Automatic annotation (TrEMBL):
PROSITE patterns: PAS (PS50112), SIGMA54_INTERACT_1 (PS00675), SIGMA54_INTERACT_2 (PS00676), SIGMA54_INTERACT_3 (PS00688), SIGMA54_INTERACT_4 (PS50045)
PANTHER family: C4-DICARBOXYLATE TRANSPORT TRANSCRIPTIONAL REGULATORY PROTEIN DCTD (PTHR32071:SF57), TRANSCRIPTIONAL REGULATORY PROTEIN (PTHR32071)
UniProt-listed Pfam families: AAA_lid_14 (PF25601), HTH_50 (PF18024), PAS (PF00989), Sigma54_activat (PF00158)
InterPro entries, per database record: AAA+_ATPase, AAA_lid_NorR, Homeodomain-like_sf, HTH_TyrR, P-loop_NTPase, PAS, PAS-like_dom_sf, PAS_fold
Residues annotated as domain PAS: 77-128
Start and end residues of each Sigma-54 factor interaction domain: 219-448
Keywords carried by this UniProt record: Aromatic hydrocarbons catabolism, ATP-binding, DNA-binding, Nucleotide-binding, Transcription, Transcription regulation
SUPFAM superfamilies with a match to the protein in the record: Homeodomain-like, P-loop containing nucleoside triphosphate hydrolases, PYP-like sensor domain (PAS domain)
Keyword Cytoplasm: no
Protein name, entry field: HTH-type transcriptional regulatory protein TyrR
Length: 539
């Protein structure tokens, strides 16, 4: 027997064994103390392993970084398993085929708080019995013979993802169960935050009225009739008083609400709009007040923020407030009075700091009288009422609006168009039942559907030329004398009116096609009617 220093090269030990025909060498440390004995067989097989390792290293290097995977076992042969396990970020727990713990790594100790000494050599059943763990994935893998993954809660509330995999021996029998453990608390928290962000983003997208991108509103057209409304809005904008805007559809109620927001100290905050007539009661409540986690079947498990939350610091504009169901009116009253509300299915009141603006095309006072709107809420919401007159009562705005939107749509659709002065004259006296929205739609339609630069009266739809328009003959002028004296029939009267209207259309338009279009009928119908009434074109 010969002493070999612990760090002596393997080749030296081999040479020593060969040279001196020894069967074993003693291993000594640097202080000369014997720390073990190596037999010839052990030294030879270690040398053989090292040579194999060197060979496979060469193969791997030759094959590059993506070299053949069969070299991995050889490469790892010299690395202590425990060190590999401890280098992992995820926890690792290994049991044998019976469920007895054979190894855990440092990450497992860190994540679960269990110590190696608590578990090594112990059966999983015992650990469950002692309450170290609530459920054993390893035992499930042993029982089912297949991988198992589940999320477990630790006593401090953290969540861990546990995945157990069976490992088999060469003969196919189960040899070990390797379980990895990942702390997913942060991941779930991040996912929750991301979900909240997504919800918030979608609420903003759906309900925010973005001033910056709405080119249409860049230029506000006012007349004497509306200047007073905007002046009043400007005066009260800086305060947080509730403003109730009334007016027919399309008169500019949303625009006025936005004007109030932009002239207020909340202008840096959001401006959200919700149309109370657009959603069924349940959905309206959820959108407005939000809901608590698991509030109802199908609800997002994490709950959802309502607009009252999202508009915090900004302005919430509730359009068509007259259509808010009575049950929600009671909830809204609490918001108005206390700036607090209860999410659907919630148990705690939430605070919000927002400015509430409302609008309605209904006569809200009449709704109160009919018992369809709460009186107390009505008075709270209408501290400052502003009523926008319909466009037919602000005639001075029609031509400026027509010119403004013509310029806007010509630019948007890259067209050059002008109004024939007769068109402006005709439209200035139109009734505009759809108010400014109707006007905007008409101008865009004319810009994109005509191919000539000049927009003439024959391009106008029949409703703009009908009763109330310049084309409508006065009753006195058209009703036959017999009717006035109560002798003529309704048919005679209708025919006389039709004849008169055709005459006028033909006088005003150069072609029968244009005259027919101004009357809202096709050319062949007009020609037939001309024959019926023996009407000839004058020019
Ligand atoms: N004074 C104005 N000058 C220029 N454009 C206007 C004016 N008032 C309203 N508009 C435009 O008219 C359109 C309709 O206005 P708005 O949506 O504010 O009407 P509304 O009364 O809220 O309608 P609804 O009752 O249907 O909600 C919008 O495109 C708006 O920009």
């Amino acid at each position: 027997m010969q002493n070999v220093e612990q760090d002596l090269k393997l080749e030296a030990a081999l040479a020593l064994l060969e040279r001196q025909s020894l069967e074993a060498v003693e291993v000594i440390d640097t202080r000369g103390e014997v720390i073990g004995v190596l037999t010839r067989q052990e030294v030879e097989s270690a040398a053989e392993r090292k040579e194999r390792l060197a060979r496979s290293n060469q193969r791997t290097l030759a094959a590059g970084p993506d070299g053949p995977p069969d070299t991995a076992t050889d490469l790892l042969a010299e690395v202590p398993v425990q060190r590999v396990l401890d280098a992992l970020h995820d926890g690792v727990y290994i049991t044998d085929a019976l469920g007895v713990t054979v190894a855990i790594n440092q990450a497992y100790e860190r994540i679960t708080g269990l110590k190696r000494s608590d578990v090594l050599g112990r059966h999983m059943q015992e650990l469950v019995r002692r309450g170290y763990i609530s459920k054993s994935v390893s035992l499930e893998v042993i029982r089912d013979g297949k991988p198992v993954t589940l999320v477990q809660s630790l006593h401090d509330g953290r969540k861990i993802l546990v995945s157990g995999l069976p490992m088999h021996a060469r003969d196919g029998a189960l040899s070990h169960v390797v379980t990895s453990v990942r702390d997913i608390t942060e991941l779930l928290r991040a996912k929750h935050a991301q979900e909240q962000l997504r919800q918030l983003h979608s609420l903003h997208e759906t309900y925010s009225v973005n001033a910056g991108t709405d080119e249409q509103a860049l230029e506000l057209v006012t007349s004497e009739a509306t200047a007073a409304c905007f002046a009043l809005a400007e005066r009260v904008a800086a305060t947080d008083v509730k403003v109730l805007i009334q007016g027919e559809t399309g008169t500019g109620k949303t625009l006025l609400a936005r004007y109030l927001h932009e002239h207020s100290e909340r202008s840096a905050g959001v401006f959200l709009e919700l149309n109370c007539a657009a959603l069924p009661e349940g959905l309206l409540e959820a959108e407005l007040f939000g809901y608590a986690p698991g509030a109802f079947t199908g609800a997002n498990a994490r709950g959802k923020q309502g607009l009252l939350d999202v508009a915090n610091g900004g302005t919430l504009f509730l359009d068509e407030i007259g259509d808010l169901p009575l049950s929600l009116q009671a909830k809204l009253l609490k918001v108005v009075e206390e700036q607090r509300f209860m999410p659907v299915g919630g148990t705690e009141l939430r605070r919000t700091n927002l400015r509430l603006l409302t609008a309605s095309h209904h006569d809200l006072a009449a709704r109160v009288r009919e018992g369809r709107f709460r009186e107390d809420l009505y008075y709270r919401l209408s501290v400052v009422p502003i009523t926008l007159p319909p466009l037919r009562e602000r005639r001075g705005e029609v031509i400026p609006l027509l010119r403004h939107y013509l310029g806007h749509f010509c630019q948007r659709h890259a067209r050059v168009r002008h109004f024939d002065p007769e068109v402006l004259e005709l439209l200035a006296s139109h009734q505009w039942p759809g108010n400014i929205r109707e006007l905007i739609n008409l101008v865009e339609r004319l810009v994109v559907t005509t191919d000539q630069t000049l927009i003439t009266t024959d391009m106008l739809p029949a409703e703009c030329l009908g009763p109330g328009g310049l084309a409508a003959p006065s009753a006195a002028a058209t009703i036959p004398a017999g009717v006035r004296e109560n002798h003529a029939t309704l048919t005679q009267c209708t025919q006389a009116l039709e004849r008169e209207l055709i005459h006028r259309a033909l006088e005003r338009h150069a072609t029968t096609r244009a005259a027919a279009s101004s009357l809202g009928i096709n050319q062949s119908t007009l020609v037939k009617k001309m024959q019926k009434y023996a009407i000839r074109r004058q020019r």
